[in-house]
Amino acid sequence: MSLGGGHNTDGSNAGGIFVQFNQDCTSLVAGSSSGYHLFALTPDDGVEEIYASRSGQDTCLVDRLFSSSLVAIVTVAAPRKLIVCHYKKGTEICNYSYSNTILAVKLNRSRLIVCLEESLHIHNIRDMKILHTIRDTPPNPRGLCALSPSVERCYVAYPGSSAVGEVQIFDAVHLNAKCVLSAHDSPLAALAWSMCGRRLATASERGTVIRVFAVPERTRLYEFRRGVKRCVSIGCLAFSACGQLLAATSNTETVHVFRLGEAPPADSEPAEGWMGWLSQAVTAGAGYLPGAVADVLAQGRAFAAARLPASGHRAVVAITNVAKGAGGGAGGARLLVATSAGVLYVYALHAAEGGDCTLLRTHALLERAHDAHDAHDSHDAHDAHQGTPTPTPTPTPNARAPFARVT
User: What Pfam families does the annotation carry (predicted)?
Assistant: First the structure.
């Protein structure tokens, strides 16, 4: 659930502000030219800035461990260095340097994952020692990887091929390969774990089909078609906490929400319009249609959708719930969309009937987002460190303080 601009999906804020929800979607982090910012999501559909580093360092990656004080950051000036901080104390816990640019950082309560273009490094969250390095992974210039929030099923998913949509699943606790999923014919574009770590959502560069798999059984549970008119670039996938809803953002102005549940009963009302007619035709003549055609027409459609006021910005998404009466509001499900323009949109998601989501609030996260000049400069600075990949040695830690329990 992260975004940035520049040359990769997760790693640089060169095209705007880096934005990411934390693992349980209770807070939001942002990396800007002035440092990094932490925001709490309040029960009244608001946001509250709880910390701003104001270091003056352009921050291209930042991740917070749930609601703890532990924050991992990467700056544009030093894109090969990971800095781990205790933000409440204002202290640096440790830092690690790598042989190439850090493209993504993922945290849960057991592990910290650092993703480079051709390797992944697994750290123990308790003492930050490196436990294992997955070397010579297929070229992954966007730093695409996903870490399950679950400690019991602490799996890392990453591309197993740069030519097709193969997913490698690695057990980050037992440090062994778990399974391989043949998810798509095209290269992967997005990955997301459910909170329990039992389900993995995938999307390819074609952007037309989203699939959900059971892990480690490798069973395809659901298949959704985002649209039939055009291919798009999927930017983010995110499950609801209950695992029954899945949201997807793309390079269009529409955010889709899919329902993961049982098929509608046979006596339910058919969908309206020509897609409803096609669905009935598939049901009536499934035995007479070519298999590929029947599969396409039988794929699930979006249960709900939200339209962003502005397009052209990368967006990350989260699905949360607000208790009835909290902050004087009506309560219910919420669809949260944060963009690289530094804006958070809060939508009411009608969890029972679906349909169009209602925009409730719009929040400007930072007083001023990067202007075009800042974006251009940070993009050049980030690219200047790319160069030719070199063999990846074991990272050398530079400890600044003992790693204490973080709350």
Answer: PROPPIN
- Whole-number Å distance between alpha carbons of 137 and 36: 30
Q: Are 325 and 319 in contact (CB under 8 A)?
A: no
Q: Hey, which residues does 305 pair with through a beta bridge? A: 256, 356
Mean pLDDT, residues 347-366: 94
Which of 234, 372, 259 minimizes the C-alpha distance to 316?
Answer: 234
Q: Which two tokens stand for residue 71?
A: 């924050």
What amino acid is encoded at 27 in this protein? S
Q: What is the pLDDT of residues 115-134, one digit of tens each?
A: 999 999 999 999 999 999 99
Say if residue 373's pLDDT is above 60. no
pLDDT at residue 27 greater than cutoff 50: yes
Question: For 377, which DSSP code?
Answer: H
Please tell me the distance from the alpha carbon of residue 317 to that of residue 40, in angstroms, as a whole number.
15
314's tokens: 């990368």
Query: Which SS3 state, helix, strand or coil, does residue 103 take?
Result: coil
Tokens of 284: 């009536």
Task: Report residue 356 as tokens.
Answer: 């169009």
| Single-letter residue type at 183 | A
Per DSSP, the three-state class of 153 is: coil
Strand order across the 130-135 sheet:
104-107, 111-116, 119-124, 130-135
pTM of the entire structure?
A: 0.81
Length of the chain: 407
Lowest mean pLDDT among 25-39, 328-342, 349-363: 328-342
Q: Which residues pair with 378 in a beta bridge?
A: none
